[in-house]
Amino acid sequence: MIIRRSRRLAAIAAVAVLATMVTACGTGSTGSGAGASQSQSIPEAGVDDGTTLTMWSRAPLEAQAKHAVEAYNSTHKNQVSLELLPNDDVEGKVGAAVQTNTLPDILAGDVVRVPYWAQQGIFQDLTTEINDLPNKADLQQGHIDAGTVNGAEYTLPFVTDISVMVWNKDLYKQAGLDPDKGPSTVQEFHDQAAAVAKLNKSGVAGTYVPGQSGGALVFQLFPMLWGNGEQVLSQDGKQSLMASDSAKKIYTVYRDLASTPNGVGAGSKEETGATWTAPFQDGKIGVMPYPYTAVSSLFKNSPFDVGVAPIPGVNGGSSTFLGGDAIGVTRSSSHVAQAWNFMAWLMTEDAQQKVFADNNDTASNLKVLESGYSKADPRTVVANSTIKTGRTPVSVNFNEAFNAAGSPWQLLIQHAIWGDGSTVDADNTAITTVLGQ
Q1: Greatest Cα pair distance in the chain
Q2: What is the mean pLDDT of residues 201-223?
Q3: Does pTM top 0.90 for this prediction?
Q4: Which of 183, 261, 364, 387 lies most in the core, judged by the most C-beta atoms within 10 Å?
Q5: What is the 3-state secondary structure (H, E, C) of the chain?
Q6: What does the pLDDT look like over 286-309, one tens digit per residue?
């Protein structure tokens, strides 16, 4: 824990150094915000002149990143050299590169971390370029909003990952459940998971919980509140609302399953997120919220039939966590016009179709979402339908409050599910304290 904290503080300190550099050195007139501004205009489509561009992306999104880079490189003079970073190494790698001004030309990062990076000056100001996109209105806006500071826009969507409810239809049949109907409320989620638990099959559980992964937990649980028409954070992102009556109902459902034989999968309490999708893939879990980027590959390769539905709200409705990665041009880049060529191209309908829709992944272009999946698996269409009600939480200190190892959110879940639930209010106050720092 001390080592993790030291690395995180080092990364934050490094970004602070860059913020000072931005204040001292930023020039130009495009937009206003924390990052560098452009002093020269960039063509609407950028520049494609044979430049080699460097790009960093997170390893969990390897397939999507490779699809994008390979499609671009095969049709452009510019060439993107992609480096994949292990998820746990991103903060340290970016922090070190900030200190030496050796960030890549293009940086893709977890959308919940992007607000902090944008505020601290890691990205170049692309307000004019983004607003001049002919199809900006057709783009998923959550990843643009995440990279907006004081009206200046720094990022575009890269990979849109969404959370959905999945269930094992084979286990549902064995449990006497309708295999074609997933849960439509949180209570139905509980009841269906409990029915699978009662099968008392070796190694099989009703659901699975990534108990030590704050990031996976928000991906799973936030939509249950959004679907109910509720918020998870205050509008300014400085107050946690995760001690509401509806939130406590969610914790109670999971706590009851945790105390039920076979209710939650073995290892749930200790799961750090490294293997949180594996138990369902192995056919050992009845029903659980799940990242869609890990679902589509199961359609062809899974030995059991997979059901897909939106994540239900506490009392009905549905939503999704608009996760994944946003993308921007870093302050270190001397090839902004060329990097913009890649970003602008990726936003086009043709690129979104080829890179994402044709691979059963979620496009960020809304027109492609509506019409580009006629040949896709019907479950992909169901998943895409959740985007209209999906949300992305925006807070500068979100990572420290929710995602980081040992975060107060992670502790809230540990106490609420595997404890007696009596510390939810105090734990929620601890989250608010970190958000407001």
Answers
A1: 67
A2: 96
A3: no
A4: 364
A5: CHHHHHHHHHHHHHHHHHHHHHHHHCCCCCCCCCCECCCCCCCCCCCCCCCEEEEEEEHHHHHHHHHHHHHHHCCCCCEEEEEEECHHHHHHHHHHHHHHCCCCCEEEEECCCHHHHHHHCCEECCHHHHHCCCCHHHECCHHHHHCEECCEECCEEEEEECEEEEEEHHHHHHCCCCCCCCCCCHHHHHHHHHHHHCCCCCCCECECCCCCCHHHHHHHHHHHHHCCCCCCECCCCCCECCCCHHHHHHHHHHHHHHCCCCCECCCCCCCCCCCCCHHHHCCCECEEEEEHHHCCCHHHHCCCCEEEECEECCCCCEECECEEEEEEEECCCCCHHHHHHHHHHHCCHHHHHHHCHHHCCCCCEHHHHHHCCCCCCHHHHHHHHHHHHCECCCCCCHHHHHHCCCCHHHHHHHHHHHCCCCCHHHHHHHHHHHHCC
A6: 999 999 988 887 988 899 999 999
Q: Token digits for 410?
A: 């992670």
